Predict the structure.
Amino acid sequence: MIRRWFSLGVAASLLLGGCAPKVTDAPPPAPEKKAAEPGKDAGGANPGKKITVGFAQVGAESGWRTANTKSIKDEAAKRGIELKFDDAQQKQENQIKAIKAYIASKVDVIMFSPVVATGWESVLKEAKDAKIPVILSDRAIDPDNPELYATFIGSNFIEEGKRAAQWLVKKTGGKAKIAELTGTVGSAPANERKKGFEEVLKANPGMTIIKSQTGDFKRDKGKAVMEAFLKSPEGKDINVLFAHNDDMAIGAIQAIEAAGKKPGKDIIIVSIDGVKAAFEAMVAGKLNCTVECNPLLGPQLFDAVEAIVAGKPVEKRIESKEGVFDETQAKDEIGKRQY
Ligand code: AHR
């Protein structure tokens, strides 16, 4: 069935000229079959066989990633799906190696979260030739070629960047000298959060980015880069920090305090993710706002796995619904956070 789904899916998308977001890329209807046991293949080539999934994770660079990995492992265990898991330690070559190993071992579905956006065509073509469907988890690929994957499940990073900037416009009245800590160079969240943020800045000429450098989504790097920002000639002018994730913001808070300034007051800070540590920093008055990015993708990912294996349709792009939380809501919200 997966074999058939792939060839028909490719033919259909060629005919339709590619797929737009939210469009369902429907495989042919599966023949009536009796319900599968959880984690087993109901309508695929091997009915009753345990489903095996290979997941090539980015690494363990942040609190967000830790929560994401836990969600995926917990959900696989809950459904009785065999999960082969690899931590690529933020290296693309490790992810490619893991994906090739999953192809060689003939898993039913491959999932991965691309550490950087480019450079995936060749290995994804290998997966396609082997008739193994691929799910993009959390991060997209560039160029986007919908023929190379079954579905993308994750956040709208451009919107997250816009939300961070829109909150700042309100908070600062449209006047700010901004330091920016960007995520991993070449990654979809770093590229797209920057893009969304700068789109809003274009309409607000009183807000300018005066320093920008990567902190690789890591707390220690966020701290080191912020230290360097504050020591630079422009350091005394910085009154806003935009960090592409909470971990870098938390590292930067330590650097700001070490420089004798008050984070959250002398320097207004907005970051992205919404992990519990960010809520703690907001309650302590050191962080002003976090834009939510949901890492708890396990249930949606495995819903898609089971649908694909059963030959059912899946949407080409499934986006998470997310909010914005600031210092005024932190105390009420902190107890409700799941990650
Ligand atoms: O791809 C999601 C991003 O990756 C999160 O915002 C960041 O914390 C993580 O490392």
User: Anything to note?
Assistant: The domain at 52-154+296-320 is CATH 3.40.50.2300 (Rossmann fold). The chain has a mean pLDDT of 90. Residues 63-79 form the longest helix (17 residues). The chain is about 40% helix and 20% strand.
